[in-house]
Structure prediction request, 202 residues.
Amino acid sequence: MCTGGCAKCLGGTLIPLAVFGFLANVLLFFPGGKVIDDNVNLSDEVWFFGGILGSGVLMIFPALVFLGLRNNDCCGCCGNESCGKRCAMFTSTIFAAIGFLGAGYSFIISAISINKGPKCFTVNGTWAYPFHNGDYLGDKALWSKCREPADVVPWNLSLFSILLVIGIIQMLLCAIQVINGLLGTLCGDCQCCGCCGGNGAV
Prediction:
């Protein structure tokens, strides 16, 4: 596949993943699907905006850049018909690196939150983190330590797990584009500069 076509495919995949990550983070503000009285009682990791910022906003820009590479004009730059495309592909590696960092941020926040467990109103009558080192993951009976909000444990676990998986996929796709972008920088694109007689580099 041409490097430009590959980048477009990657960009088209990153867009829905960014939207899903954004929505998952928004839903975390409503533990158990309910509005809580005091936002201070939300888990700290919700406020780090891993899905909104990391897997969401920071991923949109690389995705749009990847989508635009296919139609990037690459003719007549410095007397080299493939120069423009090569420069564009090199730029895409920078945006891919930014996307990788954003997805990595979301992944780390999600992993920390899953291990830590949600903040909830405990059987002791206080808002706290009743779980330790992910102990609740292997023992569902421990979930009863959280009295409110209802179903907060499966709610947080499910949404942060979704963000974790999205972050992994996004990091993989951005890493692929780094390699693809470097190949495009060195070799050009096989359909580059068709307007110049079809002599673009392969």
